[in-house]
Design goal:
Residues 1-23 form the signal peptide. The protein has three helices and 19 strands. It is of the alpha+beta class. The protein binds 2-acetamido-2-deoxy-beta-D-glucopyranose (3 copies). Residues 41, 73, 75, 83 line the site of one 2-acetamido-2-deoxy-beta-D-glucopyranose.
Amino acid sequence: MKETSVLCLLFLISLLSCTTNQARLTVSPSSSQFFKLDFVSLSCEEDDSSAGWTLRRNTTEGQRTPCGDGWGKPAGSKKSSCNISYMYPLDSGVYWCESREGPISNMVNLTVTGGSVILQSPVLPVMEGDDVTLLCKTKTTPSNLPAAFYKDGSLIRKQPTGHMTIQHVSRSDEGLYKCDISGHGESPSSWITVTGDTLTCLCFCSFQHSQCDDNLMTVFALF
Ligand SMILES: *[C@@H]1O[C@H](CO)[C@@H](O)[C@H](O)[C@H]1NC(C)=O
Ligand SMILES: *[C@@H]1O[C@H](CO)[C@@H](O)[C@H](O)[C@H]1NC(C)=O
Ligand SMILES: *[C@@H]1O[C@H](CO)[C@@H](O)[C@H](O)[C@H]1NC(C)=O
């Protein structure tokens, strides 16, 4: 019981120290897929701006390329926010924030298509238990055409309005999603990642004393 409390406290402390020297990369509009010539705004939401966070990306064009170095428009001298006015398929890649001392933020995969269909899926990992809405849209028509949704290559649902909601997502919903709209084409594929609900783990931790150790390991594995 005593050890359990200590473990929980340690967990809380590590959770807090995890979040104090961290940045979170946000993408606006919030989507992992874009049409060619779309605008996107990327930003490192930082707890400690003195850490000197820089937005970087890996694409087929280059590795660890900072914002402003051939891509994006930095906000003044700061390279922690960056806008791309017109995206091209070559802007597809992995984006993240990196501090001078080395820690990195969450990573985000962005895909830019020259095609006419995209899947709007959550760009950040989704919490277990949340509802997730996917939207299949075309470049030219209002987004309420019938669409078919696929997970890991298999058809999962056909929806008359191009929206699909997955209720109470669980780990088994994790995978590679795409959609298609008859007569318009297929979207690129994007990963949907599901993470554990840390609050549940914490409560679990304080009530199920005997299982605290195992559960803590799970919690740490999620970070
Ligand atoms: C970016 O590319 C570098 C060099 O290939 C690699 O070491 C690094 O792991 C990549 N980072 C990401 C986030 O993919
Ligand atoms: C980036 O875009 C946002 C939203 O349109 C705008 O508020 C911000 O001023 C822009 N920043 C730069 C550096 O252009
Ligand atoms: C990015 O995409 C690659 C390959 O498609 C995948 O292995 C990786 O898990 C994705 N990363 C994120 C953060 O979604």
